[in-house]
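Budget justification aside, the reviewers requested a transparent look at the raw inputs and outputs of the sequence design task funded under Objective 1. We therefore reproduce one unedited record. The lines immediately below are the structure tokens for a 244-residue chain.
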């Protein structure tokens, strides 16, 4: 099992110089650094150990789509991973399961590895774990509609990011994390067979303090880190907890 720690910088830092410095300070094996689009090229030049990821992608290779970035553009910049379906994109930019599905198809066709984000909000979670699982199952099914999962199994990573845990300091408990990671893996096993179970990451207020307990959770193959990925020393602590 290959542990993977993804640094989702979101819309940070403010300048290309700061981006290069942060990349230098967090450039480690098993890490994927995911800067904003304008910093990709510079960060790529800095990295010796970590891989490069992008925060989003469009679903065709070129055309009249103002503001969008295509899978091929990313590939040509040396990007290996792309985050698709992050809850911030679903909430603020009205991404739907359908657009997430189109992006997954396009990214896989371009041979990018997809970090497919799923996660329930607080209202769903309050109704209990069964409701949360049902919600996640639905997101998985819709996001992967018509995707040849067995063909692309090695290029699909699922990130379980409960919305209520993102940026709140309210990390899910190890029990919650393990339950959902096992649920996701079981769904893949039943739907696509035992050979086609993806790595599952947890995201949502992962910190230097919580990483140790998360690393021990059954079914968890790594983490997707937001805020703490902007603090090089804390991020290193997180990575060290996932060294196997
Ligand atoms: P935080 O680690 O800041 O809660 O963000 C998690 C996240 O959304 C990573 O994609």
């Amino acid at each position: 099992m290959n542990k993977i720690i993804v640094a989702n910088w979101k819309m940070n830092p403010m300048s290309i110089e700061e981006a290069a410095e942060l990349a230098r300070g967090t450039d480690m094996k098993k890490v994927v650094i995911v800067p904003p689009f304008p910093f990709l090229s510079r960060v790529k030049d800095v990295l010796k150990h970590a891989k490069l990821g992008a925060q989003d992608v469009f679903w065709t290779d070129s055309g009249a789509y103002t503001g969008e970035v295509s899978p091929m553009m990313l590939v040509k910049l040396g990007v290996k991973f792309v985050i698709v379906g992050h809850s911030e994109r679903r909430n603020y930019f009205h991404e739907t399961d359908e657009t997430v599905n189109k992006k997954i198809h396009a990214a896989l066709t371009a041979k990018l590895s997809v970090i497919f984000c799923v996660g329930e909000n607080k209202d769903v979670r309050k109704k209990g774990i069964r409701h949360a699982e049902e919600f996640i199952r639905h997101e998985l099914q819709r996001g992967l509609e018509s995707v040849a999962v067995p063909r692309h199994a090695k290029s699909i990573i699922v990130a379980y990011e409960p919305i209520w845990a993102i940026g709140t300091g309210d990390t899910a408990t190890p029990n919650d994390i393990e339950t959902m990671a096992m649920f996701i893996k079981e769904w893949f096993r039943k739907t696509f067979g035992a050979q086609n179970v993806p790595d599952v990451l947890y995201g949502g207020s992962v910190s230097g303090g919580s990483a140790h307990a998360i690393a021990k959770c059954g079914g968890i193959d790594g983490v997707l880190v937001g805020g703490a990925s902007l603090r090089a020393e804390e991020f290193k602590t997180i990575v060290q907890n996932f060294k196997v």
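Residues 8, 86, 161, 166-167, 203-206, 224-228 surround 1,3-dihydroxyacetonephosphate (CB under 6 Å). The chain is about 40% helix and 15% strand. Computational costs for records of this kind are itemized in the attached budget.
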